Each structure stands twice: as C-alpha cells, then as structure tokens.
Amino acid sequence: MRRFVLIAIPYVWLLALFLVPFAIVLKISLSDAAVARPPYFPQFDWAEGIAAFIAELDFENFVWLTEDDLYWKAYLSSLKIAVVSTFFTLLAGYPIAYGMARAPEEWRPTLMMLVILPFWTSFLIRVYAWMGILSNEGFLNQFLMWIGVISEPLTILNTNSAVYIGIVYTYLPFMILPVYSALERLDGSLIEAAEDLGCSRLTAFWLVTVPLSKTGIIAGSFLVFIPVLGEFVIPSLLGGSDTLMIGKVLWEEFFSNRDWPVASAVAVVLLLLLVIPIVLFQRNQQKQQEAEQ
Amino acid sequence: MIHFQNVTKRYGEFTAIDNLTIDIYEREFYALLGPSGCGKTTLMRMLAGFETPTEGKIFLAGQDIAPVPPNKRAVNMMFQSYALFPHLSIWENIAFGLKREKMPKHDINDRVDEMLRLTRLEKFARRKPHQISGGQRQRVALARSLAKHPKLLLLDEPLGALDKKLRQDTQFELMDIQEKTGTTFVIVTHDQEEAMTVASRVAVMDHGKIIQVATPDRIYESPNSVYVADFIGDVNLIEGTAKLNGSEAYAMSWHEGHEPLTVKSPTAFSDGQKCHLAIRPEKVAISAEKPAEADNAVQGRILDIAYLGNISTYHVELPTGAVIKAQTANTRRIARRAFTWEDTVWLSWTATAGVLLAD
Question: Considering CB atoms only, which of B50, B86, B145 is closest to A192?
Fold first, then answer.
C-alpha cells in the first residue's frame, strides 16, 4: 500500500500538471474561434451529452497551419535558429568547461559559482541589459569606435545576430555544466596514455577527450536546443521584425489575434516536434547511466 | 641503454629526485622499489616524458631525451590505472598506437593479433574494457604498450590492483613476456616481493635517492644499509660496538654482561665503532639445549608464535628486553611442535649468517 502511494505521487503530479492541461490545449486546438468568453466554441454542455460535443470538434486549425506558409516558415526558422545557436553555445561552452575541469581543484567551486551567478538576476533584466549593450549607441559600438575598429556604428540590435548573441549568452550555463561534469570525470592518465602511444596534444584531444565527453555534449546540446526552439522573450526583445520564431507567432495568435484554437494548434505541433529530441535526450541519459554502472 | 646523469627534480621546495645517477642496461628487468613518495614514479614519468628534470640529463641509447616529447619517444608505459580507453574495444585499444604510426592496415591486423595471442586475449578482442575482469584489463594494458615495439617499457605498479594469487601468476607471465620480446622493462613498485620475483636488478629508493642497486639475492643477503635491510623482508637488528678480532672477523659487544657476538664482515670497522648486526629470521636456529658448536648463542623466552602454515616465526624475548625473530620450517605436524609459549630456548647463528652495517 505504501509503495503504491509512493508511486502514485509522481503520477498524480504528472496527470494534474501535464496531462490535464495538455488535454485542455488539445481540445481548444480542435475547437473553433468565437467572439465570446472564453473565445472558442464548443463548450462542454451536460445537457447535450458527450457525442454532440465531440461532433463539433475538427482538425480545421491544423489544416490551416499547413495552408498559411507563415507557420511552417516559423517552425523552420525556429529550427534553424535553435540548431545554429546550439552549435555556437557548444563552441563557446566547451572551452570554458574544459578550462574549468583542468583548473586546480580548489578553484573549481568558485568557477562553478561564476557560471551559475547570472541566474541570480532576473532573466528578463539580463536580456534588457543586452539591448543596452547592442544598440547603435550601446556600449559595444561605443567601445569599438573608441578603439578605432569601426567608424560607423554596427546595427546589431533587432537583427538575427542579436538573437544569437542573446541565446548563446542565456543558455551557456546549460551547456557548460553537463560538459564540465563529463570532462571532470575524465581520467587524466588516459590523455597521457594517448600521448605515450604517439598522439600529439591535438589528436589526443580529438580521439580521447571529445569521445569521452560525448554524453555531456549531447546532454548540453539538448538542454539548449529544446527550450530555444520555443523561445519567445529573446527574439521579441532582441530580434527584429524579420526574426521569425514560432514562440513569437504563438504569442501573437494568443494575445493579438485572440485566436486561441489556432494558437493551441501551434503549441500542439511544437510539442510534437519537441517529443523527438526529448526522447533522444532521455535515451542519451539512460545510456550514460548504464555506462556508469 | 639508459643513463641518468646527476638528475634532480624539484617541485617548489620539495625535492623529488636528488642528484641521481644510474644506468639501466639493455634487455634488463629493472625494478625501482621504495615506499610511496620516494620519487620512483617521478623517475619513471621522466623516462616517459611527462616530467622534465630540473637539473641533469637523461640519455636513451646515447641521445639526450629532454627535448623529445612523449609521443616521439620509443618508450611506452603501462599505467597504474591501466588507462584503457573506455570508448574503444580491446582490439582498438591495442591498435591505437599502431594507427598513430600510420602503419598499413594489414600490418596492424597482424600485429594486434600477435599481441592478443601473446597475452591470451583472442576471445575478448571485441569487448569493451568495462566488460572484462581486472586481470584481463591488465593484460590488455600490457599488450597495448608492447604493440609498438618500444625499446623500453615502463610499468607503473602494474599488479597493484590484482589479488594475490592472480598477481603471482601475472608476475611469471611478465617475466616470460619480457624474455620473449627482449624489451627492457623498468617496473615501479612498493611491493618488495614483486620486485624480487620479476626483476634482474632492484634499485631501492628513499627520499629521492638510490640507496642500493643490486640483484635480488644480493639486496637480500648483503644489504648495504640498515634502511635496505629493514625495507626488504624481515630482519633482526642488534645494535652494538665493533672490535676487530682476527681477519675480517669482529667481536660485537651488544649488551653488558653478555658475551660479544662473533661476526664476519668484509667491510672494515674501526674499534669501538657503533654498528648494527642485521640477521634474517630464517638464519636464526632455535633449540631447547645450548648448541655446542654455534658461533653465537643467546638464551630467551618465547613471547609469541606466528604460525604461517609452511613456516612458524618465534618471537623470543632476550633477558635484555630485545625481541629476536627466528623462523623454522614446519616439517612436522603442529601437534608435535617442540616449543610453546613461555618456553626458555636457545637461539643460535653462525658468524657469517648476519651482516654488519654501519650506523
């Protein structure tokens, strides 16, 4: 009985906080928009029964998503931004994680603290801070003009570059931490063994360090990729009018158009898209656990 | 083949290797033996190229190896932790070094197969390191380090992680392989039994210095210092003063009211010089009656008996309070043992049984 209760707790949690809301969103996505409160139809009515209610639901909104090219372009563009920024996050995060793992033992907690420190400030404020840095009169342009690299201010804010910078900055800790934990466990004598067997420093890195930190790289990449795909705040604050991301489209459907059913359909499709990487991520984690046993 | 010339290694204030000069010959099985922290691992890591001497030079086949990085040295190392690549199969682990040499694929296959045969690992070629036992891993590490035909193979506590029985078997295997391949082996160990078994020469180290280099039997039978005598095996140490008594013979007075001990020693001592007599327990005989013709005999009381199966060690307390260990082979069954606790017995040894060592 006690065991049953213990198992039941997480299931009830998932049911109440994940499955039920998802069912509601799914139901809304199958409804029609209406000028009403709430702004969709049909509402469940006990008098008419469940059959009549289901008969009113249809896939119209999903069909609509395929008809208007805005949506699939937004999905595609989000996908591209997510892939590219994950790549850059890895590029920036790996050397940092490597440096941390190679640092003297007594330094590591401090370095770790520094990586986590930005979380102490609100995410929104940090993104606003980037607006101050990247704008035409911002710190970056002033600095570059002061040292004489450029004579005209660069337009960075409100472009895709600003979005990439914002995403890489925000999600860097999510890349650093798993890669660091993989690199920290790496036995230094393996690198020495590789050198002893004829590797240069660089080949030893490619043949030993990188493959052995693979699980960390994969975990970090998913931790960045999955939330970036649905990212809304960064593109809407730092991006321009041509920055197309599905999170932004979703927001506009909900709040500007008040078309809840289409917005819900967008959300459902996004979730289905995310299921694939999430499953892959889970599998990676599982494999890692098995390898450790 | 290897020549260390006045090599010193310092880490900040700490001197790991102190002005050390040694030679290691070709085809030799050379053991560096010492307690942990004595500098033996540093010495080996300098040979492999992971450390550079602060002062002095190391020559390998006449060539100063200081500027040669580890990956360019004809030296391979077997790591204490084995350092097998966990993401590669046994076959790929052994082939790792060969691939770096850009060896033709066909030759790599032949060589890896040969190494697998040598170490009897044919069946495990496709497995990953975590899927095989400790003893097998140790053999993979050996195969991997031998695959490149090194001029010199370094073994860092290679058998430390194995249990006793497996260790003994592997020691003989190592000797076999060393003979078959004709490679020079340098082994680092803190296990004196292991060093004695496998090595053709043993170097006993302490605090960054080599105390004695000799064949295992000479290290055991004629240590050059109290430290070596005490470090290798079991020993009784009796302190006293020497007095010349005939050619190469000394009378050592060790306690007032007791007859001086008769000792033969090729090294010269001046009259009245403080010295230690080091004598191995198995060279001390134990008897109930005073033996008639012994060079030295002392009386004592049995304090303790350590029964080890094949032999027994008697701890005998002399009237002076000193405890002398005597070992006898248990040729009779235990029930018929002649002595028991609290018995008064005579210990005796010949004049040549012990070694006289300066303070």
Answer: B50
Are the beta carbons of B87 and A194 separated by less than 8 Å? no
pLDDT one-digit tens code per residue, B161-198: 778 887 888 888 888 888 888 889 999 988 888 888 88
Among chain B, residues having any CB pair with chain A shorter than 8 Å are 48-50, 69-72, 75-77, 79-81, 83, 85-87, 96-97, 100-101, 130, 144-145, 148
- Given an 8 Å threshold on Cβ–Cβ distance, is B81 in contact with A196? no
Residues B357 and B359: their CA atoms lie apart, in Å, by: 6
Q: CA distances (Å), B304 to each of A45, B282, B318, in order?
A: 96, 16, 13
Find, in chain B, the residue whose alpha carbon is nearest to that of A211. Answer: B87
SS3 percent helix, strand, coil of chain B, rounded to 5, is: 30, 35, 40
Q: What is the Cα Rg of chain A in Å?
A: 24
DSSP B145: H
Q: What is the pTM of this model?
A: 0.78
Sign of torsion over alpha carbons B340, B342, B347, B353:
positive
Residue A208 DSSP code? I
As for the ipTM of the complex, it is: 0.79
Identity (one letter) of the amino acid at B2?
I
**What are the two backbone dihedrals, phi and then psi, of residue B311, each rounded to the nearest 5 degrees?**
-130, 165
Q: Which residue has the tokens 């900040």?
A: B12
Vertex B48: Cα angle to B47 and B54 (nearest 5)? 55
Q: Report the C-alpha gap between B24 and B39 in whole angstroms.
A: 17
Chain B residues within an 8 Å CB radius of A200 = 71
Beta strands (DSSP E) in chain A are 32-33, 40-41
Q: Which two tokens stand for residue B291?
A: 């033996």
